[in-house]
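Please review the protein record below. Let me know how this chain folds according to its tokens.
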Amino acid sequence: MTYLSLKNNSTNNKWLTCIGTLIAFLVLSVCWVGCTSNQKPFHRETEIKEYLIDLHDYEVANKQLVNIFLLYPNYCGSCYKEGEELLIKWIKKYPQEENVLLLSKEYKLPNNLYKNVSQVFIDKQNLMERYGLMLASGIFIRFENNKILYWNYISEETIPIITKVYLQFENTTKENY
């Protein structure tokens, strides 16, 4: 009887070890997937597309690649100057791309920047808020084939991150286009 109980304990321990390993593998898999997808979804994707279509007759769906700079000039705390700097850098680096500037109000950009932007849309009717697009900070959004490839708030802290993404976009553009 002692030999039989030892044999059962040994089999039970093997099963417990196997189940424990499986659970550990599942937990690690979930953590890996969660950690590697560091890009949070942009929850206003539908709203920005509707806003551009409804008010400016501009469809992101008709474009292969679009960079949108959503900026709020003279809006307290919106880091507009950082957004303007990013826009200038981006247009110098990628003048061949569709670069769209969406402003919450009229604003004079330096160095005739309006001429170097593909499209400039100004919220003259103050409807951005109605579409849920009046946010605390400017936003950079890169659409590719009607889907958001990348987005980030524009601030002093995020400009270096967005700048690093330049190289990724450049490599992707060279490989795919």
